[in-house]
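Entry 14. Structure prediction run on the chain below.
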Amino acid sequence: MKTKAKIKKTDVASARVGDGWVYSETVKDHFFHPRNFLPKMPKKGEFDAEGQVGSPQCGDVMRIWIKVDPKTEKIKKLKWRTFGCASAIAATSMFSVIVTEKGGMTVDQALAIKPQDIMARLGGLPVRKVHCSVLCDKAFMQAANNYFRNKGQHEKIIVLGHKVIDKRLNITDHDIEEAVLEGARTLLDVQKKLKVGVGDPEAIPAIEQLIKFYLEKYYG
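Output returned:
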C-alpha cells in the first residue's frame, strides 16, 4: 500500500516500487506471526521428507519438513525452521500457507509455485531481499526430491546442473543467477560483481540471455 507519510526508521523501503513503499502489512504479519513454524526438531517418523538449504548471501539456513497423503500426494502438513531475516521468514510462512490451504496442493503443484507467486501474496518485497524468498523454494525442492526418492519415484527427481559460462574464470549460470538475485540488472552490473565475460567476450551473448531469463523468472 503506497503512502505519502514518512517512512518509519523501523521500516525498510522497497526499491522494487519506490522509496514511498515499505514492507507490506502482510509481510509484517507473517514475520511477527509466522505460520507453520516448527520451534523444535520433529519426532522421528513425524514427516515423510525434509529439505535444507543455506544462503551465503544473507547467512540464512532453511529447513522444511513435509507430510504427504500417500493416496492423493497432497501436502497435509508443511513445517519449517529458519533463523533468517524478516523476508525469509515471511516468504516461507506464506509459502507454507499456499501449499496447505484448501485441502493442500500435490507435491507437483507445489513445485510449480514461483517466488513471484509468493511475493504477490505478500504484497511485494524489497529487491535486495528477493533472494530470501527463493530459500523456501529451494528447500522445498530438496524436500520434494527426498520424498520422491523415499517413494521410489526417481523419475520425478529434479536435478539442477550448473553450466560453465565463462571458461576462463569458471563462472557458471548459477553464479549469474545469484548475482541477479542480489540486485544486478544489466551486463555491467553482473560484470562488476563477477568480472564475467571481461576476459571472454564470446560469452557475453550467453550472459545477456541468462540475465534476461533470470529477471523474467524472479521479477516478471
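Confidence is low (pLDDT under 50) at residues 1-21.
Filed with the rest of this week's runs.
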